[in-house]
Amino acid sequence: MSLPKNSAPCLRIPPWLRVKLPSTRTFASTRGLLDDLRLSTVCQSARCPNTWECFSNSVATFLILGRECTRNCAFCNINPGAPQPLDDDEPRRVAEAAARLGLRHVVVTSVTRDDLPDGGAAHFSATIRAIRARLPECTPGCTIEVLIPDFQGDPAALETVLAAKPDVLNHNIETAARLYPAIRPQADYAQSLELLRRVAQHPSGIPAKSGLMVGLGETDEELKQTIRDLAGVGCTMITVGQYMRPSRLHPPVARYMPPAEFDELAAFGRALGVARMFCAPLVRSSYHAAELAENIEG
Q: Domain-by-domain residue ranges, the chain?
């Protein structure tokens, strides 16, 4: 008999996942800038373990389209609920924040907005255009990465984002196909793969990126099969990190994978032809994204 998710025994957090919190003025100034511009970040909303490091280095992943998500994925700490109306000034403020932070690689993600006809694709497009218009003044050569929802499989919505010409398009597969009913009940594994296939085959040449977590109950073979599936649809960048339970209301961690096994996964993906595998316990889809996206055309 399985235990309810909030009463299952907890595994002890291993030493390689214990994060030292830096104490810098930059952390406070980054947080203050975001507050001043009334912007959300996935770093804070998802309780990312790298927030202290990233904010201390003037790095943040912008979260657009509100703070409430129309879905309720089991692993996620972003609140589900009734979304607010779109903020038409948000793209400008994201661009302003990116300029003030001096970002050379801007990452923009969002909550899922199944209530919108296009899933928020036009808002993504407007944000990309605003960043392009604002940043040449401050950081010439700046690149833009978007981490998008599945838009319920709508190819027109995806085309709207691709037409704005981000430098990288990321859509996270998150976990193995077998776990979707429990972990991502409102998503579809095949639909996400099809989205990534469309990106990889698009004439724009924008690279397709995806990410997944370990520790949600997948087997080693399921983990490898997911990487095979991503390689098979043309992903050229894959991130793999450790799932960490945001609260006792979320599914417990089924296993903590040692760093050496992440290295083995990276080698496995490269052997399949995925040139850019970023695999480590604290890796998240936008963590050190600038390094993964360096020399995108090369």
A: 22-292
What is the rounded distance in angstroms from the CA atom of residue 193 to the CA atom of residue 173? 7
CATH 3.40.50.1820 fits 22-292, yes or no: no
**Tens-place pLDDT, residues 126-160:** 999 999 998 875 556 788 999 999 999 999 999 99
Low-confidence ranges of the chain (pLDDT < 70): 1-10, 16-34, 36, 40-60, 137-140, 286-298
Q: Are 174 and 183 in contact (CB under 8 A)?
A: yes
Instruction: Tell how strand 61-64 and strand 40-41 pair up.
Output: antiparallel
Question: Residue 58: is it exposed, middle or buried by C-beta count within 10 angstroms (0-12/13-18/19+)?
Answer: middle
- Look up residue 26 and give its two tokens: 């930059």
Torsional sign, CA 189, 190, 193, 199: negative
Tell me the CA distances in angstroms from 224 to 72, 143, 266, one per residue in order: 26, 30, 10
d(CA 251, CA 183) in angstroms, rounded, equals 9
The pair of structure tokens assigned to 16 is 């390689």
Alpha-carbon gap, residue 178 to 195, rounded angstroms: 19
Classify residue 7 by burial, with Cβ atoms within 10 Å: 0-12, 13-18, 19+: exposed
Contact criterion met (CB below 8 Å) for 103 and 145: no
Does the CA dihedral 41-46-47-53 come out positive or negative? negative
